[in-house]
Amino acid sequence: MSIGALAWPVMIEMFLQFAIGRSDTLMVSRISDDAVAVVGFSNQFFNAVMVLFMLVSSGAGILIAQRLGAGMVRDARVLGTMAIVLTGGIGLAVSLTVLLGAGWFADILQVPREIQPMAAQYMSIVGGGMIFTALGTAFSTCIRNTGDTRSPMLIAFGMNIVHMILNGLFIFGALGFPKWGLFGVALSTLFVRLASAVLLLHLFRRAFGGKIAWREFPHFEPKLLKEIFRIGWPLSVNGASWTFSQLAIFSIIGLMGAQSLAARTYMNSMESFAFTIGWSIALAVQILVAYQFGSGKLKEAYFSCYRALWLGELLVLVNTGLILLFRRQVISFFTGDPWIVDMAISLLWLNLALQPGKMLNMAIGQSLNAIGDSRFMMSLSLPSQWIVSVGLSYTLGVRMGWGLYGVYAGMILDEWLRGVILLYRWRRHRRKGLFASVFGKKPPAPVSAPAAGAGLR
């Protein structure tokens, strides 16, 4: 394993997954800016809901990499099947809830009144299929943590092409299909997620050597299940905090009007290219550090984090620079609204401060998760995201009238505050924590793979 070998397929897969959402935004922009606002707001809601799936799959993924690093293939296999069954159950419950309560969710999340009917229809269709998203997320996480990052990438590539074709058929009525507009986008998304889950299931059953039989899925081992939840629940809370804070920020922007909401949606589309690079490297280093930590290669695990950080910072800044270089052409490709174009161009410059902070957060944070230090992440994220990011977004953006500039100021301060504290935490593990023995800070002590995988308490 190496950061590069793990990262590039994850990077392409993430780009393609984001491309599905971005192609929706681009094609829906030909319908109206209101339709774009619906897709953007709904996707923020779905991202928040997807955090529930992390409760099991994220913890299981880290443990799978640790167990494989220690040569414990059988445990890794059981961890994978348990994660799929539990995540599928959570996904089914979420699907039924969103399907029956889409209009209510649109109302309480303060979607602007003029677009609430569109939002309710879109959310009910896409949200009703969240079980396929849940299963796909769990399959992909387990497969990637075995070291196979290429296969999920290939599936994402195929599904991206299918999605764009279906969008063309359902939105614009190509080849004689009816022009369904936003309803067609929802149907296309639902079909693609179903197909992706089926293909990933096929890969998952062969990811641990011999083919996994259907009878193995109901098999549960309490000891391994306890480990999953011990690592997974702080990760889930941390992820929930971030995604719900982003949803809260979208609600704050909703108070500024549909035009500001559409501008932020377009910004998400452009910023996702820089974010995707950073996130793919962070996921790759999490797999690598967990594998090295499980196999007892502590010094290699410690420095892998820094290699990923500097590589990520370089790539994120280069990507942000390219977007800035062609900023007017890029934003004008999405919309012709002069106010939105000018606002988005101004906000793009702030990404020179935002994206490096995000990269610092992601690289160090995922490395800490890989060694089991997920509770510290949670205890830091909750106050920072809600007091700094959401609190300042409302105070500066609404109360003081800074608008979207105030929202970005809050997000930038939050990312850098958490990033610096996480860096200190990682370095502390060298001086006094899990890596101290290999740097001569205290007498060496044998570290078994299961104990190392158990993480910090």
Automatic annotation (TrEMBL):
One Gene Ontology cellular component: plasma membrane
Topology relative to the membrane: Multi-pass membrane protein
The keyword Transmembrane is annotated on this UniProt entry: yes
Residues that span the membrane, as ranges: 45-66, 78-102, 122-142, 154-175, 181-204, 273-293, 305-326, 338-355, 402-424
Subcellular location(s) of the protein: Cell membrane
Any GO molecular function: xenobiotic transmembrane transporter activity
Pfam family, one: MatE
Name of the protein this chain belongs to: MATE family efflux transporter
Origin species: Cohnella zeiphila
